[in-house]
Amino acid sequence: MSNSPQPPRPKGPTVIQRYSAIAILLHWLVAVLITINVLLALTVDYWPEAWARPVIDTHKSIGITVLGLALLRLLWRLGHRPPPLPASLPAIERRGAQAAHWLLYLLIFALPLSGWMHDSAWKDAATHPMQLFNAIPWPRIGMIQSLDPALKERLHGVFGEAHELLAYALYALVSLHIAGALKHQWRDGHAELQRMWPGKRGA
Description:
Blueprint: H1 21-43, H2 49-79, H3 91-120, E1 131-132, E2 136-137, H4 142-145, H5 149-187, H6 199-202
Antiparallel strand pairs: 1-2
Helix pairs in contact: 1-2, 2-3, 3-5
């Protein structure tokens, strides 16, 4: 019987642990809608005057839609554990990634909520009913809308500033999120993008 060393057996393809199809769909829907809303917010002053109000109303409608999708995504996340992070990832990066994900959830909720509060404190809200995509009636926050006009006017400014600051925080965190994903993909050699990429390409 020969004692010569046996050649190594070929390894099978690496199995990429991906997010579920529902999680991937909700992730990209939210990402696309937020991107559209950012573009609307940044370009509203450059639209013709007759288009300003429809653009703002569309921005509000998309914000409420994102709020609903974020709630669905959170409920799905609580009931379906995401795929584990690579075992080779250092502990500090693992904790940072988890903290960044939960902070993203917080901002994705806080941004449309602050916009809804800002809109509810608008002095002309009573005479300009809100409709999602000009089709579905949507209520303002009654507790805010029924406040004293002077207080409501001050809160309108406060909520507007909060909405803007939260938007900048989201821009910064999303930038870090993208940079981290690209770093893990191209520098560390992890199949990071494939975990969340839709369709067969992700596999």
